[in-house]
Structure of SIS domain-containing protein:
Amino acid sequence: MEDHLAALAEAARRTRESAPKITAWGRHLAGVFEAGGKLLACGNGGSAAEAQHLTGELVGRFRHERRALPAIALHADTSATTAIVNDYGDHEIFARQVHAHGRPGDVLVCLSTSGSSQNVVAAAKAAHELGVTTWALTGPAPNPLAALCDDAVTVEAPTVATVQEMHLALVHGLCAALDDALGVTA
């Protein structure tokens, strides 16, 4: 346990330098929502849980009351995802939904601890075709997803668990920055 907490503290120390980037993402996202756009999010396994956590904070609320914000976790529609896997293959599970829901000016947040998940990389490529801004939260760099996206925060950590825990902290940081940009107060 002590080793795990020490690794988490070290990852947090390293990731702290990303705070200005996450603040900028929050400001950008506020503008997207004010213009009528939406956020899409995708990931596999634990990263899917983080994607859904992010969209839940936006559709619901983070710390304070505010209007519901349009956000979709692309893995959460089981009927669509299973139909896409059946008809197009698992590599298209998110890309097909990006084509359905994404519009120019929207944001796609891609989460991947490896940064090499084929279906998440395919979603980022689909987003670029549509003019959707792409942000990645990944594990250590370099990786294909971070290189492909418009912007990325890479977490240098020794285990997938620590990367995922840092992703949750970054998701909460993005929500706080967004609420600040929207002028949401207690």
Notes: The helical segments are 2-15, 19-34, 46-59, 78-88, 95-101, 118-130, 144-148, 160-182. The chain is about 55% helix and 10% strand. The mean pLDDT is 97. The CA atoms of residues 4 and 162 lie 8 Å apart.
